[in-house]
C-alpha cells in the first residue's frame, strides 16, 4: 500500500506526501475515471487531485488555476499549489516523481525524466516557488529507475553529463553505459542550493514497488501526491 510521509514546517503546517505502489493500482490520468477516483480516495481522502498531462518538459502549472478534470489537464511536468487541502499529483513508470517541500506557503510536485532534468524542470519549479515567496528546503523523490537497469546511449550520456556533471555516468549490471538518475536529480537540486534530497523508492525496473515502462512495457503508472494541511491547532472538526 501507499507510503505516507508527513513533513512539519516551521509555521506548523504539514505537508503530506503519499507514494503509491503496484498494490494501489493504476494512477495513469487516462485510467477509467470512477476506478481512478476510488484509488485516489483510498490514498489521500476525498479531495479531488489536480494533475498535468506530462510531456517531459519544464513547464510549471498552477493548481490554483487548473481544473481537476483530467480532460482539461494542461501539458506540463510540474504543479504548484498554494491552497490548503489541494492535492497535486504526478505519475511515473521509471521517471522520477518529486515533491518540493518548502519552508512555508506553496508546495510543488514534478515528473522528471532525463529530458525534463536536462530542460531544467527542477530550477523552473524552485524559481516559481521563490517568486511566490517560498524556499525549497527538501526534495522527496519516489521510485525511479536505477543505473543498474538504465542502459543509456553514449551521446545522450555525454549530453546529460555536460549539463549535470560526470556523476551521472554509471554502468548497468551488465557493464554497459548507464545514466544514474539519482545523481542527476541530486545535481539538479544542488545547482539551486537544495542539499536535502531524500530518495524514498526502489528502482522501478528491478524493485517490486513501482511500475516500469522500460523493463516491462507496463502502461500503468504509480503516483506521488502532495498536499498542505493546516497546523493541527487550526484544524476544525
Ligand atoms: Zn534496477
Note the topology:
Layout: E1 3-8, E2 14-19, H1 33-44, E3 60-62, E4 78-81, E5 88-92, E6 96-102, E7 107-112, H2 114-119, H3 121-131, E8 136-141, H4 154-164, E9 169-171, E10 177-179, H5 181-190, E11 197-199, H6 213-216, E12 222-229
Parallel strand pairs: 3-4, 8-11
Antiparallel strand pairs: 1-2, 2-12, 4-7, 5-12, 6-7, 6-8, 9-10
The structure holds zinc ion.
What's the CATH superfamily, by name?
CNF1/YfiH-like putative cysteine hydrolases
In the CATH hierarchy, the third-tier topology is known as CNF1/YfiH-like putative cysteine hydrolases
Q: What hetero molecules are bound to the protein chains? A: zinc ion
SSE series:
EEHEEEEEHHEHEEHEHE
List unreliable stretches of 5+ residues: none
| Spatial arrangement of strands, main beta sheet | 3-4-7-6-8-11
Quick one: CATH class?
Answer: Alpha Beta
What Rg do the Cα atoms give? 17 Å
Strand content range: 25-35%
Q: Any overview of this molecule?
A:
The protein has helices at residues 33-44, 114-119, 121-131, 154-164, 181-190, 213-216, and strands at residues 3-8, 14-19, 60-62, 78-81, 88-92, 96-102, 107-112, 136-141, 169-171, 177-179, 197-199, 222-229. By secondary structure, the protein is an alpha+beta fold. It has one domain: CNF1/YfiH-like putative cysteine hydrolases, CATH 3.60.140. It has a 6-stranded mixed β-sheet. Strand 1 (3-8) and strand 2 form a beta hairpin. The chain starts with a strand and ends in an 8-residue tail after the last strand. The mean pLDDT is 93. Residues 146, 148-149, 203, 205-206 line the site of zinc ion.
Amino acid at each position: 500500500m501507499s507510503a505516507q510521509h508527513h513533513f512539519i514546517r516551521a509555521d506548523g503546517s504539514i505537508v503530506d506526501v503519499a507514494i503509491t505502489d503496484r498494490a494501489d493500482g493504476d494512477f495513469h490520468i487516462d485510467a477509467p475515471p470512477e476506478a481512478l477516483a476510488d484509488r485516489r480516495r483510498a490514498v489521500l481522502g476525498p479531495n479531488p487531485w489536480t494533475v498535468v498531462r506530462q510531456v517531459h518538459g519544464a513547464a510549471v502549472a498552477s493548481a490554483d488555476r487548473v481544473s481537476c478534470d483530467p480532460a482539461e489537464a494542461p501539458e506540463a511536468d510540474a504543479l504548484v499549489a498554494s491552497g490548503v487541502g489541494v492535492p497535486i499529483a504526478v505519475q511515473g513508470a521509471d521517471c522520477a516523481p518529486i515533491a518540493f517541500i518548502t519552508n512555508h506557503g506553496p508546495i510543488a510536485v514534478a515528473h522528471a525524466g532525463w529530458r525534463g532534468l536536462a530542460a531544467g524542470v527542477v530550477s523552473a519549479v524552485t524559481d516559481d516557488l521563490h517568486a511566490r515567496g517560498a524556499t525549497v528546503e527538501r526534495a522527496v523523490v519516489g521510485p525511479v529507475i536505477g543505473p543498474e537497469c538504465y542502459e543509456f546511449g553514449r551521446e545522450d550520456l555525454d549530453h546529460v553529463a555536460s549539463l549535470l556533471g560526470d556523476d551521472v555516468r554509471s554502468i548497468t549490471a551488465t557493464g554497459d553505459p548507464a545514466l544514474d538518475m539519482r545523481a542527476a536529480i541530486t545535481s539538479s537540486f544542488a545547482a539551486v542550493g537544495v542539499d536535502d534530497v531524500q530518495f524514498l523508492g526502489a528502482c522501478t525496473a528491478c524493485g517490486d514497488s513501482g511500475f516500469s515502462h522500460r523493463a516491462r512495457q507496463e502502461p500503468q503508472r504509480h503516483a506521488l501526491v502532495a498536499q498542505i494541511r493546516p497546523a493541527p491547532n487550526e484544524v476544525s472538526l
